[in-house]
Amino acid sequence: MIIKVLGSGCANCKKLEENTKKAVEELGIEATIEKVTDFKQIMAYGVMKTPALVVDEKVKIMGRVPSSEEIKKYL
Amino acid sequence: MMNVISQIFSWINNEILKMTWLSNIIQRLVENVFGLSIKERLGGSLHFFIYDTIKIFILLSVLIFLISYIQSYFPPERTKKLLGNIKGIKGNILGALLGTITPFCSCSSIPIFIGFNAAGLPLGITFSFLISSPLVDLASLLILMSFFGAKIAIAYVVVGLILAVIGGTIIDKLRLEEYVEGYVKEIENVDAEIIEMTRGERISYSKQQVKDVFQKVWLYVLIGVGIGAAIHNWIPESIIQNVVGNNNPFAVLLATAVGIPMYADIFGTLPIAEALFGKGVGIGTVLSFMMAVTALSLPSIIMLSKVVKPKLLAIFVAIVATGIIIIGYLFNAFSFLLV
Fold this sequence. Notes:
The complex is a heterodimer of chains A (75) and B (339). Chain A is α+β, with helices and mostly antiparallel strands and 75 residues long.
């Protein structure tokens, strides 16, 4: 599974990355987490408000930081 | 019947928005615990500082929660789609209105600008949105009601929206599309599928927003309240009157010029505005200051400079600043209708 955290490096993006890592660890699944900071690439997903979470190229969350519990639903 | 309604309204205004009860509690605290009269300087400042800080933090928590919940229905991706179908001045009006309910911070102005542009929205509509978004929202309406009363609050929102519509329309008519940065034009439009949130997710999002805003602005609020308390009790009225009061015909210009580079949101600006207003500074001058602080700031100008060329940026700043100055003088001239 490929997970991408979209965001230009704001505090919320870091928090989303942390929560995602936690969710992956707790579920014990194989996944790589990538950070996407380039505006062009972020816009290519149609996302206008960061942070966003992309799982296997599908946008799951836009413009907010869910808890690691909620993130587990999308993995 | 009318009497009852007006009594209910004044109760809501005094107890819930102005929080008179809180003022009374703090008055008792200052007088009985600290042993200071609030009619005297030190007691008065202390009362202003404690009362305003608590009041602003309560308003901030309640209002940000409320507005975030509403905003969760209008992510910028949806706003983009809604605006895509409408052309002309109607588009500017809708852009200005959506600006009031779409979540916005200066950090998201770049993706919003690029996204709107890629979707083929006219430049003028994008700017109507960008002007109204930081300037007017539900929170600012309720906050202004709390501090200045309903008439001034409604007038502020209406002129703010008019400024956004006219500003965007002027930018549209000037045909400035060539002054958008080249790379912005190359980005293609992608419509993301909008993910509906559950009620629980909206609530947790709104709580998160309250926490974020709190962390971001608490210091500005304390500084603002501190300056407000100083104006309220320590700086002689004559000095304030001569610098930003009715004795200085350039007061509005000065208030706007000082406000533009400042970066704070409405919560940090209010105590200063309130204290100035209390010292008899014209309501137009006070509103110009608040509008200049919220609508334009150094960080937002720097952000925008990454997507538009200097000429368009300068025109944008000039239009908004001129609008704010005109609004200031109009409010001062017609203040007898509002105060």
